[in-house]
Amino acid sequence: MNSGKEFLKVYGTQLKKNRFRLAAGGFAAILLIIVSAGTVNGRNLILCALLGIGCGCCIGLPKPVLSMKTDIILNLLMLGIYAFLVPRRIFWRTEFALDNHMSGLFPGAAFFNICIILILFFMILFLAQRTSLALGLTGIVCLFFTVVNHYVTAFRGASISLSDIRAVRTAVTVAGAYKYSISAELWKSIVYDLFFILLGFRIDVRLKGVKYHAVITTAAVMGLVVCFCLYHFSSYWEVDGINGENGNIRGGEKPYGAYLYLIVTGKASGMQKPLDYSDSEVTKIAEKTKEQYQGSDQETSLKPHIIFIMNETWSDLQVLGNLEVTADYLEFYHSLDKNTKKGYVYVDVLGGMTCNSEFEALTGDAMSLLDIAAIPYEMQVDHLMESLATVLKKQGYYALAMHPNVAVSWNRGPVI
């Protein structure tokens, strides 16, 4: 009893010395509750309010002064509970923020998504050598990934892939053109992750010396080795078509989960040379094709003006059926009938990745030979490449290919 009273007395003194910290925690809790009230309602509001109070406590309440042994045991216990429960909850909240309620995940996909979060923790732990920093920074990375992924998925219907990371410069140039709002599920994910981040920063196993760092380094390296083995040697990737062919996180019958999808697209993004490939055989095919499609001298001497416009926002809505309209919405286009050929172009993208349609139109190369998450401009083209513009130049044309956006978008230079 006396020890309990003494503890409360000492902790009360700590609270008095940390009044500013208490005020900051209270302000944070009130702010989160106010924003939650304007974003969610019902049970979700109660949950977010409780999480907001938890965030305020993590910020405002100082850690009690304990003996070295008690502090280590308590933090190890909290670390075990955190590692068992929190990565799973972080994964769930990422999926819910993407409106993916995980009813059709690949068998074992949830386990691998959680493992990826743990591997991220081990990587940061290896670099930081502090459990508190590793837990907190892992939560920050996951929160950032969840928020960005939410808006990317809302825009184009597919989760972030490895190729998107390489195209971040292009994303920055267009991000300001969109309107952003916070859905109820996204806000719940944000509040959850904020609580996990702040809680993680408080779990600090205070061991010192060479043995401590040896244990930390060994644990981190073992986690990375397990990741490497699963990535390169596991037969799981060939089970149920987990090989990058289904692509869309919500379009596939059995989604991967956002974290696993990132790994799958990375595994499938490379190009492998066919077993029976040879330069001489490719040359024979090219020569045969050239002879088959070679035009006559009269045809090649004609040089009509060619204007090729790609407008990704233009379409004739009549393709959807007979629309009842009060006036012709494409009067000039519909009036064209002399010296005119009309038809439809089918593309394999929607919302995002229109650069791939541009690549196909300019080069004649098909995306069907590449992974669904590939961006040839960024990932495959590392040299000057033949295109419609260069072919016309060789035929005596003055050719100009241009795009009305900034030059850094998509690394178009080697093609156009």
What can be said about this structure in brief?
This protein is mainly alpha-helical and about 425 residues long. The chain is built from 17 helices and no strands. Helix 4 (about 70-95) runs parallel beside helix 6, helix 4 packs antiparallel against helix 9 (about 185-200) and helix 6 packs antiparallel against helix 9 (about 185-200).
How does this structure look, described?
The chain has 416 residues and is an all-alpha fold. The protein has helices at 2-17, 19-37, 43-60, 68-97, 109-128, 131-156, 162-166, 168-175, 184-202, 210-233, 258-268, 279-293, 297-301, 331-335, 354-363, 376-379, 388-394. Helix content is 58%, strand content 0%.
Counting helices, strands and paired strands, the structural category is: mainly alpha
**Rounded Rg:** 29 Å
Low-pLDDT segments: 244-254
SS strand fraction: under 5%
One letter per element, helices H and strands E, the order comes to HHHHHHHHHHHHHHHHH
Give the oligomer, counting copies of the same chain as homo and different chains as hetero: single chain
State the major sheet. Answer: none
Number of helices: 17
In percent, how helical is the residue content? 55-70%
Number of strands: 0
Mean pLDDT: 78
Distance between the termini: 80 Å
- Backbone shape: elongated
